[in-house]
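ok so I'm stuck.
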Amino acid sequence: MRGSIRHPLSMLVLVLLAFSAGCVRSPQVSFYTLDSFAAAPVPQGPAGRSVAIGPITLPELVDRPQLVVRTGANRVEILETERWAEPLKSEMPGFLAGQVARELGSDHVFSYRHVAGASAEYRVAVDVVRLDAVAGDAVTLEANWSVRHTGPAGKNRHSLVRETVQGPGYDAVVAAYSRALASLAREIAAALREEGALQPPQ
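replied:
not stuck anymore, here's the structure
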């Protein structure tokens, strides 16, 4: 008699455990990339000399897969379910190269990771010292960078960019990241013009 009672109870426990396991699901993770502005064609200008963008260094705080948002003067939140599709340090050189190419109207601008970047005449190194995001407010980008030619070293430069987050949610935060980096790309392009990067290749 006891055995016949024990068996249905055991089955009931197993059913309840299976049901509860099915109800507990891992939270959905969203993955983000920088906006490539791919719809904007590269205007054709003078051929110019070759340019390599990178390497890029980032603060350890944001050099991670998760998006990081600031929630106070001394507090941040690391968002486990909001992540970059690839490391920012890897994606940013290609993103900046694409933006600088459009600004200069040149198809001779590459990420330093690209095979053509290895022999580039001009190199742009970027040290990001601050990359803060406040959801619903703004993204702030601060960077030290330099343009170096195969000859004498170029001067060091500094950029500080603030982009308003235009809407709710983390898509708007990532879009503000992209616009901030596009602003940095415009400054880099202006410096490359000053340095003679648009002169015909020798």
